[in-house]
Amino acid sequence: MTSTVTAPEADEQHSSASGAHLVRKKRLFFPFFLPAVTLYVLFLVVPTIATVVLGFTSWAGAGDTPRFIGIGNYAELMGSDSFRYAFLNTLLYIVVGGVGTFLLAFLFTMVLRDMRGGKIVRAVLFFPNIVAPVALGMFFGIILIFRPNRQGLVNHLLESVGVDAVKFLAPENVTWVVTACLIWASSGFYITILMAAVDRIPPYLYEDADIAGATPWQKFRNVTLPLTWDVIGVAGVLWTISAIKIFELVFVLAGPGTYSPQIRAWTLGIYVFDRSFGTAGSPQYGMACAAAVVMILLVSVLVVLLRRLMRRDTIQF
Amino acid sequence: MSSTVESKPAVAVRPVRTPPRKPKPAPGSRGFSPLRLLGMIFVWLFTAVNVLVLYWLVSASFKTPIEIFSKPFALPLQWFERGDPFRNFAYAWNNAGFGHAFVVTVVLVAVSSVVIVLVSAPAAYALSRLGVRGSNGLTNFVAIGMGIPFQTVVIPLFIGMGKLGLTNNLFGMFLIYVALSIPFTVFLLTGFFKSLPDELEEAAAIDGASPFRTFFAIMLPLTRGGLITALILNAIGLWNETLLAIVFLNENANFTLARALFSFYGAASYQSEYGGLIAGVAIVVLPMLVLYVLLARRIITGLTLGAGK
Lengths: 317, 309
Known about the structure:
The complex is a heterodimer of chains A (317) and B (309). Chain A is an all-alpha fold and 317 residues long. Chain A contains 13 helices and 2 strands, in the order H-H-E-E-H-H-H-H-H-H-H-H-H-H-H.
């Protein structure tokens, strides 16, 4: 008897208390969220919008007032050699560097899956990812020096086996050298991501494939690839947004360090920097902003494209 | 005939229950295909090259320029013979300003990373656990910030900070570092907060804890692992950060390590001061190596967390 009477009461009490609690919880939202989002909006969103607006102005920099010129900057960018090199090099690093990095990562996943010491290999390969790109660039700059009689490490090795030394850092070669360095330095990160996904694949699938006499390639093509597809997609997006901003590595590897390298080695990041904060020539902030807008557009287009390409129904396993 | 005789005792001897599946067979027991062998050789060669590169870097930082280029793999000798083995490090530390930059970087990175986590953790909690409508949209709005290249914001930021007198100023640098690290940190921490079970919050509420107290006394300590990961990853990122330091710091007294290394490069290669330069590179890299050796697992899982889901 008593229980039937008290039960609804307790229930009511509980629900109103939990309702009040919910309200108090929601009241916490703004004090918790506002500090972070204020900083985010002030330092990232507003400047991005400002860059888009300033991209339509002719503006030499501090001391000058921006003057609206419509798409004049973009027209000028199209016609300029330095921008063309910057754009094509950036695209090259994203596409060729990306394909190279992922091919290497796939190769490693095929081998590493059941290899003794795989954990150690992964840990060693990952390390370059937490080294400052500026330090990596200098390191490569030193070991790739071409200087007869006092060669850098790589040319020293080439000469010691009787091969002619190569001018790695000459304008016509440096883009490919940077691509190779990029693949070397970033493969560890993507190997780790892909291996984490591969480790989640149930081993019996591989055992089945073994029993059926599958080759490593067949196992990769028919088991690994389909079951890691989504992770590959995310990794591809990560690659794109990190490769678009390549700057320090190329800047110190291809150039003398303090000044920008010659334009054939430029990336969009270097273009923006050179036109605004570079020490040579007069600054053109308007042009730099327009080039920065191109960077955002490029990264957005590539990410959307990649997501489209990689889209498919998820596989449950 | 003989087979039935043989099989019967085998069945009888077998234990009543066998485990459902054998644990993974020992690696390498599967029989080698030549392709696989080739792959393994390649993988180990690649790894060996990486280790060799690290050896080269560390040994070269104790060498004279002549040794660096003529005997790249020999152990350092000349500076040791002259009784001054740390000559390169002393040069970088004192003459190239790395000593001062080291102190600046340690303080700036430590303070910034702590503040980043202090600001981001409540925001991540608010977005992931308070059940406010529109949280998902707001999370995406913040996460998009990870895709914005710094080059895009650097010009307006430079002008704005200049107006406030905060360029070439370590406090200004600190503000920028904190603000620009928020998207990644909030995104990382929402993942950690989401993984906690609802029951904990409910239990705390029933016990009469205010939502504020629930956050500080229960949820925050439970995500300690995530907070530490966020702290370490931000510290690594800021330690290596160069572009913003180049733009916003232009006085030796304010230089961070990466910034000091950047301006030292031109001068060092001009004067063939390669020993000092490599020592400078080592001063930037070796602390990261130590951190990595101690915390490799946490760093790797933290950095690859977002992609694995």
